[in-house]
Amino acid sequence: MKRVGEPGGCSSLEAANTNEQTDNSDWLSRKGAMALAKRLEAYWHERGYPAARFWAEPIDERFPKLGTYEVYRIVCNLVNGLPPTYR
Questions:
Q1: How far is CA 51 from the centre of its chain?
Q2: DSSP string covering 24-63, please?
Q3: d(CA 12, CA 63)
Q4: Conformation bin of residue 81: beta by default, left when phi > 0, alpha when psi is -120 to 50
Q5: With bands split at pLDDT 50, 70 and 90, how would you rate the model's confidence at 1?
Q6: How far apart are CA 73 and CA 6, in angstroms?
Q7: Pairwise CA distance, residues 42 & 74, whole Å
């Protein structure tokens, strides 16, 4: 990681891309969405939140440019961006 300075005294971190999949990966397909959900769940479980759950669901809407291509999204049980506190 390297720190990038921004005007106004703020700074942000720029992380190297260490994803298992490449930039050409399809996170919207069923396989890609399930892999991402599994990865997110492992992230929260490693940090002591075994109640965090993530899964892939198909999006019902169809977009003209996508045609009949099925698009998936990740759904979770996070509350206000944090996992449930029960264990």
A1: 17
A2: T--TTSHHHHHHHHHHHHHHHHHTT-TT--EEEEE-----
A3: 35
A4: left
A5: very low
A6: 33
A7: 14
Burial per residue of 16-54, b for 16 or more beta-carbon CB atoms within 10 angstroms, e otherwise: eeeeeeeeeeeebeeeebebbbeebbeebeeeebeebbb
Note whether 82 and 48 are within 8 A (CB): no
- Per-residue pLDDT tens for 31-77? 999 999 999 999 999 999 999 999 999 887 766 666 667 889 999 99
Which structure tokens are listed for 4? 């990038």
Distance CA 48, CA 52 (A): 9
What's the confidence (pLDDT) of residue 39? 95
**43 neighbors 57 (Cβ within 8 angstroms):** no
Compute the C-alpha angle 57/64/25, nearest 5°. 50
Per-domain residue ranges of the chain: 22-87
